[in-house]
Amino acid sequence: MAERRKTDTKAMTQPRYTGIPTFMRVPLAGEDWSGIDIGLIGVPYDGGVTNRAGARHGPREIRNQSSFMRTIHHVTRVNPYDLVSVADLGDVLFTKLLQHPGALDEIETVFAKIKGHGITPLTAGGDHTISLPILRALAKDRPVGMIHIDAHTDTWQMFQGSKFSHGSPFRNATEEGLLDPKRVIQIGIRGAQTTADGWDFSQKSGMRVVFMEEFAEIGVDAVIQEARRVVGDGPVYLSFDVDGLDPIYTPGTGTPEIGGITTLEAQKLLRGLRNLDYVGADVVEVAPPFDPTGNTALVAATLMYEILCLLAERIDSRR
């Protein structure tokens, strides 16, 4: 096993507007991925969007806004950079960008390489389609559980004749044996639909669906306990679609739904999910063209920092 490299945080002491923007201002890994514990990576792809495109621009703007992040968490006092080695792995590069199945294969190939290096990926999307090829790489050997925060279940069957869209990754992942649906919880689900197909598939397959009305009724602490009960001690993937938040906080997204989670509730929720057996995580569906203020990307960057602390603490506890 390669010796763990120390995270170089010198860039974090400089003015935020200087230097080449990377996620959280950590070093860009280049081609040498040895000794890295957590890889921050962008997947600039939105070929599965069903309405408002723009999430392809998400990783670049999240990198820019992530310059606001600092090192030590003010609640947990976790400093992820002291615990583990963190690097920016760059973006997935495509040669088949307009060939949907081919683009998904290219994403899978990169994440298989990440897994092969023993790196835990924290991904900035891109639309939610990207979670399927990521899971194909990370869950190839055994199905994993999942904590999924979203306005939508993303378990629909088809859209315009295609089974691959941002509305279907977790149906496909379940049918391909990548997810154990009995260890999946979906939090914040809401919004009218033209078909009940997605809700029905999630519930009939055994997923725990926490509609937003239940979330509001029982509160964050109860949802945290339910999430921990559902996923248990086994390997788990964390997927956070920013449309799970109310669009007052994240207007720059493809499928906004009012009546959602607040940013403070989201932070409290994530902080209640410490010490789970994470195999990776993503934050997706940031579409900067719909939010010229940059606030949606700032929220996404902050969520990534919260998740980074979760991953770092877990990796450190294994040692």
Q: Kindly state the mean pLDDT as a whole number? A: 95
Q: Main beta sheet: strand number and arrangement? A: 8 strands, parallel
Radius of gyration: 18 Å
Provide the helix percentage.
Answer: 25-40%
Count of distinct strands: 8
CATH arch. level architecture? 3-Layer(aba) Sandwich
Give the low-confidence spans: none
Can you identify the CATH class?
Alpha Beta
| Strand-pairing-aware structural class | alpha/beta
Order of neighbouring strands in the sheet with most strands: 2-1-3-8-7-4-5-6
Q: Give, in order, the helices and strands.
A: EHHEHEHEHEHEHHEHEH
- Describe the global form: globular
Our count of helices gives: 10
The tally of structural domains comes to 1
How is the CATH topology named? Arginase, Chain A
Organism: Dongia rigui
Protein name: Agmatinase
EC number: 3.5.3.11
Pfam family, one: Arginase
